[in-house]
Structure formats: C-alpha cells, structure tokens
Amino acid sequence: MSVIKIDKTNWDRGLKKSRDVFRLVGPIKRDDKKNSEFVELSKEELPDLSATDTVLSPKSIVYTQSEVLFEYSIDPRKKDCNILKRPKKDYSPLAIIGIRPYDAAALLILKKNFDTDEYKDPYWIDAYEACTFIGLAVNKPDNRDFSTSIGSGPFSEKGLDILLVDCEKYFLAKILTDKGLAFVKAAQWNTKANEDEALKEIEELKSAAISRIKSKVSFDNIQKKSIMELYNEDFWDDLAFSCINCGTCTYLCPTCWCFDIQDETHGKKGKRYKNWDSCMFPLFTLHGSGHNPRGDKVTRVRQRFMHKLKYFLDKYNDGIMCVGCGRCIRSCPVNIDIRQVCSLMNR
Fold it and tell me: Is the same domain home to 144 and 6?
C-alpha cells in the first residue's frame, strides 16, 4: 500500500491522461437537473466531486437497470435461427470516480447474489470486473448517515481500489489494489506522499467524520429471534399504514437486487430483458393462477424489512442488507425510516 499526493491543479490533467486506458464514470449534473447522477463521462466532461450524494447510487453502472440478456430469431431462412445470441457490450476498463465508500460496500453485498460458487451471472461479473473503484471519503456525513453502525463508514475501504481523501488543496490517494495502482499510473500521478504523515492526516479526517455521525442502529437481538416471532409482531400494520407502495426505497437502495425477466417479440425475432423490479409492487409476486401471496401492502412492507434486516442476516451471517447511506430515509414520501424499523425489530 502507498499514498499518492495529487495537487488539485493536476487533477483534471491526470483524469484526461487516464482516458488513454480507461473509460470514466462520475457524478455530474446534466440538462439542468437538480441532482447529480453517475454517468459515463464524455471527453469534455469531468466528475463533479463537490456534489453531495447522488439520489441514485452508481449501482446501475454494474447492475444495469434494463439489460438485454440475449437476442434470437425464429426465422428458418436465417443462419442463426433458434440460436440465443448475447449482444455485444463494451467491457473495456472503466473507472468509477468519486463513488462513496458505502456504495462500494453495497456492491459487495450484490456480489453475494450474482457471483456465488454455485451460480454466476456473467453479465454482472463482466461489468463488475471491468471496473476500478476510486472512492471519495465522506468528510462531512449528513444526519441520515448511519454507515458506521453496520461495518461501513465514511472512510471505509471495502470494495475500493483507491480511497481518495479531500484535503482542501490536494487529494491523498490511498492505493489499495493493483487495479488502483494501474489507474494512478495511467493518470501519471506519481508524487508519493510521506506515508506516515499522510496516514496520520487521513486518520484525523476519518475520526472527525465519524464523530459527526450521530445516527445509530443496532441489530444484535434480531438474529437471536426466530423468523416467525418477528413475522407475527403486531407493529407491521401500524408501520405499513402510511406506505403507498411507490417503490422509491427499493429503486434508490444500493443493495436491492430484485429483477424481472421479460421477452419482447416482434414478428420472428425477439429479445429477452432483465429489468429491476421491486418487492413493493403487487405484480412482483402475482402467480399465473391469479393468486398473490403478498396481495396487500402490509405483507409487502414486512417482506422488504424482513429481507433486509432478518433473512439476509440469517443466511449470510455478515450483517444486515444495508450500508447506512440514508437514501431511503431522505426520499421516502411518507417518512418511513429504516432506522426506526430496525429498532422496532431489535426490541
């Protein structure tokens, strides 16, 4: 591990040099939009690292919101009749600049679903492995951030190749992996910092950032309870009363992985799509018979929180299915707060 010092006057120039090897993704505002979003940057664009957290996480860069799995033709006159063809996609090296540490940690949670010993999703794996993650530490967490309670944090290094720390006039880049080193070389940032001094400065900024986080959650008792004990609790009706099943929480969440498969056929050719879906929607569990095991919003709200805070915890024994980013709290139109739900379940 080494630490590189990047003067901010050399930041833009280094990113432009890195384009010889990497495509770049970063937060930027486009078309007079109020909020920034992570997008692939054109040659004229540079990431806006002054932007606050994006409404959507950069999850969609790896786990595309709508993706063609394969194309096919059933026209007997075609040589490729009845052959499923995976469409071509650019998997050349991609650097995600300014990803927040908890969003990088969230991708490791997705990895538990899409890249296992038994099942491997090649679309997700190829996209993830093409990425180099340059994380930007959060010097000033907001009041909804509770990432320190669940093993992440504003300076977490989980899932990152480089941890970038803003020190006002310069960045300190803590190189964590070979991928991170390759990016620094491509950008030609080669000013090594005094490692002891740099690590001390990073640690001081980290401590200051952690001290700002007042929001906490506990889930130590949840794993001790049986599933049915929590499933039958009487607070679910009250909790679900205000929910409008809009799905905002699931689409904003960097750890939600549910998807639907749909075919589109036009004449004798077609495509199969994988699209994000949400357990908040009635159609998500609607059977072909017409029966719906989660036909009312109480059962859907319960499913969302039981999955995040109980089922995942029991299955993987590696914390809850949440990284504490606070997006769902910030954007829920009826003010349902996952911290309060976690507290209810824990008590």
Answer: yes
Task: Give the per-residue pLDDT at 30.
Answer: 74
The beta strands (E) that lie in the chain are given as: 2-7, 23-28, 37-40, 66-73, 94-99, 131-136, 162-166, 170-175, 259-266, 269-276
Instruction: Mark whether 125 and 149 lie in a shared domain.
Output: yes
User: Which residue in 12, 14, 46, 15 sits closest to 29, CA to CA?
Assistant: 46
- For the chain, the 3-state helix, strand and coil shares in percent, each to the nearest 5, are 35, 20, 45
How far is Cα 270 from Cα 261, in angstroms, rounded to an integer? 13
Cβ 188 vs Cβ 19: under 8 Å: no
> Which domain, by its residues, includes 245?
227-346
Window from 39-53, 108-122, 316-330 with minimum mean pLDDT: 39-53
Q: Which of the 8 DSSP states describes residue 182?
A: H
- Residue 153: partners with Cβ closer than 8 Å, 6 or more residues away: 101, 102, 147, 210
| Token couple for 129 | 């492995």
Residue 52 in this model has a pLDDT that exceeds 90:
no
Asked if 177 and 63 sit in the same domain, the reply is yes
Residues 192 and 291 both lie in one domain: no
The pLDDT score that the predictor gives to residue 29 is 84
Instruction: Decide if 312 contacts 320 (C-beta within 8 A).
Output: yes
Q: What tens digit of pLDDT does each residue of 175-226 get?
A: 999 999 999 999 999 999 999 999 999 999 999 999 999 999 999 999 999 9
270 by Cβ neighbours in 10 Å (0-12 / 13-18 / 19+) ranks as middle
Backbone angles phi, psi at 273, to 5 degrees: -115, 145
Q: What are phi and psi of 308, to 5 degrees?
A: -65, -40
pLDDT given at position 32: 66
pLDDT tens profile 53-102: 788 999 999 999 999 999 999 999 999 999 999 999 999 999 999 999 99
